[in-house]
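Q: I'm writing a short explainer about LMBD2 protein for a general audience and would like to include a description of its predicted shape. Could you first generate the structure from this sequence?
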Amino acid sequence: MSGAALGLEIVFVFFLALFLLHRYGDFKKQHRLVIIATLLAWYLCFLIVFILPLDVSTTIYNRCKLAVNSSPAESNGSDVTLAPSKQKCFKPWSYIPDGIMPIFWRVVYWTSQFLTWILLPFMQSYARSGGFSITGKIKTALIENAIYYGTYLLIFGAFLIYVAVNPNFNLQWNQLQTIGIAAANTWGLFLLVLLLGYGLVEIPRSHWNGAKRGYLLMKTYFKAAKLMTEKADAEENLEDIMEEVRKVSESIKYNHPLRKCVDTILKKCPTEYQERMGRNMDDYEDFDERQNSYPSEKSLAKLHKQVIYSVQRHRRTQVQWQILLEQAFYLEDVAKNESSATRQFVHTFHSQEPENKIIQYFYTPTVEWYWECLLRPWFYRVLAVVLATFSVIVVWSECTFFSTTPVLSLFAVFIQLAEKTYNYIYIEMACFLTIFFLSICVYSTVFRIRVFNYYYLASHHQTDAYSLLFSGMLFCRLTPPLCLNFLGLTHMDATISHKNTQPTAYTSIMGSMRVLSFIADGFYIYYPMLVVILCIATYFSLGTRCLNLLGFQQFMGDSEMTSDLIDEGKELIRREKRKRQRQEEGENRRREWKERYGNRDDSTRSRAVHTDQKESSFSETNANRSLSKYTRSNGRTERDRIELLQDAEPLDFNADSVNDDPLESDSGR
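A: Of course. Here's the predicted structure. Afterward I'll give you a sentence or two in plain language.
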């Protein structure tokens, strides 16, 4: 089993990252390099979270071996924990051989840092560029990132000059590397505490409110009113951009050198606008002789960028509106079915997507009623209580993890109790649950946060390339300080525990933080205590109230603006519901008409065909009889027989062939 756990987790985490990226990104429409870079960033961050518990259990086993092999005389009163007996130092099932974890962590860490500080910012500018060629997009990305990269190079260069001139500093390459890591982790820890303080309160509260049907329905109405405003704004913005594109398309004809740029812009427009703005290829104009002013390539690149943004926003609001409608209809169905005497869940509208037969077999209407109307609220309440308990333990441990005598951090107490009995499965499960809960609190905030329309992770494949790359940057910057904070909470970091023990492989690649004592002994220890203030602010919704005062509409139960938006959203949902009911009623009437009269029309059509066949056969029989009659009489000529055959044919009563004058008809006969 040596190394098998590591391989299984590597494969599992890859598919987990791929699943989440497929939910938010669009593999068909977005550039492959954007998908690969975002997938790599998410994968490396999730991998660190899942592999770190294995590193902890392996480190505890190595400490046990070191304590058993060392004699009491050699220990010399150090803080090394001695094992009572050698039999307790058995290998854990997930033991990773020596030398693998340091290389693994070094590759993962430096790859993630290269992504977050160099590659992903460049790809962000490249993805947002409106250039019409690869060279143009690269040039735009380099210009936009020149200030970004130049600032870091200026700070780093000034620091190197200061170290080289000052004789009191004798820093080596490893120490410079540690300083760079400490600077990156300090920036990440600053943002980590902000996101963690929000997630520790909001996640349990959201699950508790999830048990309140009325609360969820009111919040859905509120979202509907806001989304309708955003949807109308997106449609208006798209119309304005398309009008500009139309004017540019009419002014720049097919023989203009910039016509290729215009064609590239037209390809990014929706299909209905492309058909509306079809250019006239026969209209030739010599643009050199005209004195009209044509837009430059730079202005076309700006227009191209606006078209990409407006089309993406319009498509996203359309999809989100349909999803929100389904959610509102379902919550209204739940409210209606709570008082159902039959205890069978009845939907107002049938699902537009085909359901799985296996799910239909087990998830019957009766089972759905018991889950949605009876069990689900209690499940969410119990889950909210469990999550709130975890949040209280995290807040307590963040405020007391620096205390080593006595040990006040509850996570450190749990790990040390398991370390005495060398219960590696318990150690790995405790470590995994702890770091997993911390990751959920931080990462869920990253998925929820929205910076106007520039950064927004929207599900159902509606996230743009810029937001995907930005999320990868945030994950790569937040994960290393998150793991260091976890090791500090469990006292697995020698900088926190102040013990001369073997460090974890993850801590070893970070270097000794003693190079910067004011960061190791000050910022890393006391700054996480601010999580208490942030949790209190989040509990009383101070951020939401401030945004509401600034004019950003937020859901608040005691606000008059919230009540007005709820009423507006309720009316919008009612209107959409009536529209869909009329559509379904029309489809049902057409289906009933087809089922009722479809067979009758077919039978009538078959009888008409049969009658025509009988008439034609009867006329042919009469013609044959007349022909045989006049054939037996040898006094008739061939001309008479032809006339008799013509008289035996059925008459044509079309209006064009019927003559109104009877005299002409008699003479013709």
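A: For your explainer, you could say: The first strand starts at residue 450 and ends at 451.
Q: Perfect, that's easy to follow.
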